[in-house]
Amino acid sequence: MKLIDFHSHVLPGIDDGAKDIEESVEILDMMAKAGVEILFCTPHFYPHKQSLDSFLNKRQAAYERLMRYIKPEHPKLRLGAEVLLSKQLEKEELDLLKLENTDYVLIEMPYVHFSGSMYESLYELADTRGVNVLVAHIERYLANNSLAEIEELFAEENVLGQINCTSLRKFSLRRKCIKLIKNGCVHALGSDYHRIERGYALLDEGVKILHKKLKADGLNRLIGSSESIEKNVALEEILSV
User: Fold this and answer.
1) What is the CATH number of domain 3-240?
2) Is residue 8 within 8 Å of 39, Cβ to Cβ?
3) Quick one: what percent of the chain has pLDDT higher than 70?
């Protein structure tokens, strides 16, 4: 079982994640102990607040600083971004924001009640040639939307979903996460790790909880789909399993 973390803010000093190199390395030490093999570094990108060039330059600089301190046991780092859904996004921009070595882009939805235009914007993005959408921490949108409204994101069968392992600690939220998994809305796990002081759950804890709450084939399907995303398997093929 390969543990792949699709969502993290471990790059130092670029957003509201790790504040410096020391914290980044400490987080990576913990992830190594948790058995994480691949970690996607996905700092926030807000199209309405920053230019793409500025974001990419800052991300590359933070990555290069961190790579000087990488240990052999650390997860392999891959670049990406947590991209806020926006009608401003062009294909050329999306190509530069994909999870490294894949055609998948991690998309964050606004924290409001979903409108019809938001669903349309997501589906239009997902229909962009050469771009596949992975929706970030879908369970967090339950604060403003019903379970049915979250599931509607996947009605067109052209997007995939990710959940945060920390959400599995909370009983009421855990039950909803399990429903989302069983209903085919979840295809990847993430820690969404920001700061050590907040005590995020790592992937080993998330998998341990899911092992108790899901049948073996359900957990295997989820882990298999995450491995397929990392290998850049076509979205249609992942959804057909």
Assistant:
1) 3.20.20.140
2) yes
3) 100
